[in-house]
Task: structure prediction
Amino acid sequence: MNAVEHDAVRPNAGAERVDLSTWFTRLCGWAAPGLALVALGTQAAGVELPLAAVLLVAALVLAVNAWVLRTFRGQVLELDRLRAKEALFARRLHSIFSILETIGSVRDLRQVLETAVSEVALVMQVKGASVKLLSEDGRFLRYAAAFGLPESMTREKVVEVERSPLNRRIIEGEPYITGRVTEPDLFQFGETLSAADIQSVLFVPLHLEGRVIGILGAYCQKADRFGEEEVDFFRLTAGLVAIALENARAYEAVTQLSRERTWFMTKVAHNLRAPLAGMLSILEVVRDGYLGSINEEQAEYLRRLDRRARTMLTMVNALMTLSRNRQLREADAEASADPAVLAGRVQRTFQDRAAEKRIAFRVSVPPGLPPVRGRLETLEQVLENLVSNAVKYTPAEGTVEVRFAQADGTVRIEVSDTGIGVPEADRTKLFTEFFRAENAKAVEESGTGLGLVIVKEILDGLGGRIFMASEEKVGSIFVVHLPVAPATRRQAHERDQGHSR
Amino acid sequence: MDSKGFVLVVDDDPDIVATSRIILESNGYEVQTASSGKEALEILARVKPDVMLLDVMMASDTEGFDLAFKLRQDPEFKDLPIIMLTAFLDKVRTEGPGPFEFILGEQWPVEWLFEKPLDTKKLLAKIEAILKAKQGSPVG
Result:
């Protein structure tokens, strides 16, 4: 709040200079004839000529000075005034930019309101500012934010527009200015303002797309503070505040929708998974002979049933992953993960499965790799999809390798296998929804065709890339580049390393 | 026939309840079941199980957690081993909009969370391990 004082244009600066030059002019004006008289007097008194001559010259010089000053004083004053005006405009321009920047970068409605009123007070160089918002039905105004005003004046105060001709006029589009709050049309409000040490007020409507959403107010301790020009500037400011408020409201609405959608999808997933889980548990109990022994054929068909149910489950999970909304993806991008931990998890997840198929499985990660952008669980999903494919489509005695390496600004992860490969014709379709190559279907009946889509979506969200090279019946290599986490996130990451579930 | 232990299964899904009972009883455990938090509390008022299997979402979205929190505050049950079951693992662990947000903090009321469909082998192994640990430590 000292900033207001600092930045204040001292409107009297020019006036002081005027006073000084006025005095100097007067001085010269008197001194000139005075000295002339002295000179003549000394001449008359018979003083040496040179001295008199000097005095005369001095008097002449002073007279010329006085004349020059009086002639050009007008221009000097005018120049002063222009300079002061220019400074004021420059400051206002700067203030507008500052409001735009501050309000534009804040999305929380509450914060926008608080920032708006303090910035407005700063820009207008007044004691206080307020935003009153109109209710949906247009009947009530309430103080949404206030700066520099006593709390008793604004706290929980609601005004019924019907009963307040003053506010009604403003909402209908007329700004209200008064230089003296003791004027009768302010009624009780005038007394309240007076008590708060306010003498001038200025109210303008906050317009947005043709409708009035509220009132912006400025309050000053000095009387007669607000002139024509101030009103124009204030209206401009009000325009910015209205836009900022609308932005914040829109953002809030989107966030709320997002939250609702997330919750909905969560329930959908649960309602699909729960019956599947029930089915699988029943199947298990029957297949494992808990209800009596079963014959070969029964076992075979139960196994098929089991597999179809599990495919559905995987499909549900994959669809849920794909439907994760943008907000959560953005939150992911803010996190960071340790490649070494990622490598360890991948190793543990697949070593048994690979061993069962007699596939050589190796994960290598050099020490000292920097943290990468993204959440550990999300990156795990990426690798799980790639390695799961590799293991699925590699026959027995084959090899699956996962190699981590440092690259330029990224961590490179290569998943290579000696499996069935991807036919050339299918390579462009590989990352499309539900696509499964024919040779893949021949090996493994069940598959969602969503794994690589998920991989691509996650990487897109993190700014990562994926490359693929493959030869049918020889094998495939998938290379993923994960961007390194920026420095500040790394520090937070290191701090969080303390607790990992 | 001495039972290995007494397990209370709380889940509103009748299939899960039925199959859990079959599996646990076949493996030598004594089983009682409840299909809601309220029913569970009624049973707990009469007997104290060795282990409790508790579903997360039953009639309400947080019924399981509500019950778990409640038990943790009861001195008689605060050390009761509770294994929570959910058809819903990744959401619970990583996201948790709305009622599950508190889970993301450190106030887990339980130590174990199993995903449905259940890995029976793992579940049985866990129950065994829990009971063994219980026998090892002095009972308060």
